[in-house]
Structures are given as C-alpha cells and as structure tokens.
Write a structure and sequence with these properties.
Blueprint: H1 7-41, H2 49-68, E1 72-76, E2 79-87, E3 90-97, E4 105-108, E5 117-118
Antiparallel strand pairs: 1-2, 2-3, 3-4, 4-5
Helix pairs in contact: 1-2
Length: 120
C-alpha cells in the first residue's frame, strides 16, 4: 500500500502505533531471553520451542500491521518506523524510534536516519 501521511494523520495513528510498539518490545525481550535460555540450558521457565514459535508469529503479526497501514518498518532492535510524507513539497519520512513518546522527527527520503531532524 503506497500511502502518504500528513503530520496530523501520522500523529493521530500514534496511539495505535505505541500500543503495538510496546507489545513488540515486550515480546522481543521475552523471545531473546527464551531463546538464550534454550541455547544455554536447553530449558526455560518461559517455555520451549512452541513458545518461541508463538512469539515469532506474534512479532510478525505486529510488523504486518505496520506495513498494512502504510508504515515502513526500518529496524526491529530498536524498532524504527517511518511514515511516508511531504514537508514543504519535499518527500520525507516522519520518523519514530523506539523510546520516542511522540512523533517529532523527520528525514528526507534520500538521507535516511542520518538526516533525522526534529520537526520545524
């Protein structure tokens, strides 16, 4: 889905983005601990292979939600999500990074994360 967001549209989506991002981060941590325990000890109080597969599937569903709503997932650790947009006629990505509590950054398409700036 090719979609372009206004700043207002992107900010209106942030409660849903934050809800899924918080769940993603929590599950990502659970999966990392579970996988490490299974590698190191062959067992974990968090479960076994079935729980690994369930967490992987749920993480994939969350990432799929972002994509289905026109967002671009640029990274998963940390979680980095871009909203295609335009500012003053220039094609940009409104940029949300795990840990941000609001959408307040952008970068020109061709610059990527290195060109990240706060909204004017």
């Amino acid at each position: 889905m090719d979609r372009t967001f206004t700043v207002e549209e992107a900010r209106a989506m942030m409660p849903a983005v934050m809800e899924r991002a918080d769940a993603f981060v929590r599950m990502r941590g659970d999966l990392a601990e579970l996988a490490q325990d299974l590698r190191d000890r062959g067992e974990s109080e968090r479960g076994g292979l079935a729980e690994v597969k369930a967490l992987e599937a749920r993480l994939g569903e969350i990432l799929g939600w972002f994509v289905a709503h026109g967002l671009e997932v640029k990274g998963v650790a940390p979680l980095l999500v871009d909203f295609p947009s335009a500012l003053d006629g220039v094609s940009v990505r409104l940029c949300w990074l795990e840990g941000d509590r609001e959408l307040g950054w952008y970068h020109r398409d061709e610059l990527g994360f290195a060109g990240r700036r706060p909204f004017p």
